[in-house]
Amino acid sequence: MAEISSDVIRGYNDIIILFLLLNSPSYGYEISKQIRSLSEDKYIIKETTLYSAFTRMEKNGFIESFVDEDMAGGKKRTYYRLTEAGREHYRAKCEEWKLTKEVIEKFIADEGALI
Amino acid sequence: MAEISSDVIRGYNDIIILFLLLNSPSYGYEISKQIRSLSEDKYIIKETTLYSAFTRMEKNGFIESFVDEDMAGGKKRTYYRLTEAGREHYRAKCEEWKLTKEVIEKFIADEGALI
DNA sequence: TGTCGTACTATGTCTGTCGTAGTAACTATA
DNA sequence: TATAGTTACTACGACAGACATAGTACGACA
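Structure tokens for the assembled complex are given below, as produced in the milestone run.
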């Protein structure tokens, strides 16, 4: 199965992660599984990429973290919730995506033209 | 007018440049103008990005350069032509694009869902 | 004479992604 | 009871494509 290279995805992890936070807070491991299943195994985000995206986006004010201390066994889990700025960032990124898509498609040759 | 940021485009300059070399050799300045006009001013590639892409893609065997020494005024111009490997690279990148598009669209919310 | 367009080259920086490694608790299986 | 697997991260360093800034040099045109 063909895989999507990292370079292609660069800059789109934001959209992907924020989408999964639109309706309710979530945490790293769950988001990673959701990306995998929603993309039907076509995109498997690297752990380091995901967690560094969290750090970056929190610094930018797009998400906020809170820790669930009361899990069984004393384990901790860090949740992230979308801020209003994050929602706006998501909207803007989606607009950008539409534009990008239009532009790139102008540089895709017809099947036949490729011999 | 909204502009496309570099991160969005990252990894797609290859497709864009190679597309413009599919039918005939060309050179930096012309390609840059063609990108601008074909995208209707929505994407203006940076000179340094373009020329470093040439260097990289020549190193990878996707394109070959030759110099036109006989221009009026003794000026030189470096042309690039697509190799067979470059054509294959272009094909592969287009396939990857289709996959990427499908995946990313799964993470784009409906207009209405965004309040 | 000076500005604009053409056609690049050089050098260094930034940043999102990735590779590698490690920690630590719980859970199912043999 | 041992051990492999899953969950849930953190730390650190490296890579590479894109970018900022600057400079070179020729021709055309006013």
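The interface with chain B takes residues 2, 4-5, 7-12, 15-16, 19-20, 22, 38-39, 42-43, 87, 90-91, 94-97, 99-104, 106-109, 113-115 of chain A (CB under 8 Å). The radius of gyration of chain A is 17 Å. Further analysis is deferred to the final report.
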